[in-house]
Design goal:
4 helices; two-stranded antiparallel ribbon; globular; 155 residues; alpha+beta
């Protein structure tokens, strides 16, 4: 399967709005106990999450996984820091790229691939306000063109 394909469970749409995504990496994620059951149920949120490199390893912060309903005392902390599983070469590339100013590691989506939970992370450069406005104008113009074309097809 190609990178980023599988049963998509959550997507971080805000990341594409706030960052220019230049490169993506597929990574595994270290989970505890009932977290995978909550993820399979789709109770995961990537909205304010970010990845950070600490001691030569990549960690995902602020990803919210809701506690499993039947998990009772075996449930986990919903906002705990989770380790991402990447190759050493990929981590060293991320370290080199994030040393440059303006680059950050952003989780883009979480999905299931061959029964394993995967996170697609992207190397992003922050957008300025005028870049965001420009993107909105392009999106609106494209929507208007499609609407006009669709109306023309009806006649």
């Amino acid at each position: 399967m190609p990178k980023g394909t599988g049963k998509q469970l959550a997507q971080n749409k805000k990341a594409y709005h706030d960052y220019f995504i230049e490169e993506t990496f597929e990574s595994g994620i270290v989970l505890q106990g009932t977290e995978i059951k909550s993820i399979r149920a789709g109770k995961v949120n990537l909205k304010d999450s970010f990845a950070k490199i600490e001691r030569g390893e990549v960690y995902l912060h602020n990803m919210h996984i809701s506690p499993y309903e039947q998990g009772n005392r075996y449930n986990h902390d919903p906002l705990r820091t989770r380790k991402l599983l990447l190759h050493k070469k990929q981590i060293s590339k991320l370290i080199g790229d994030t040393k440059e100013t303006g680059y950050t590691i952003v989780p883009l989506k979480i999905y299931l691939k061959n029964g394993f939970a995967k996170v697609l992370i992207g190397l992003g450069r922050g957008k300025k306000q005028y870049d965001k406005r420009e993107d909105l104008k392009k999106k609106e113009a494209k929507r208007d063109i499609e609407r006009a074309f669709r109306d023309r097809q009806k006649m």
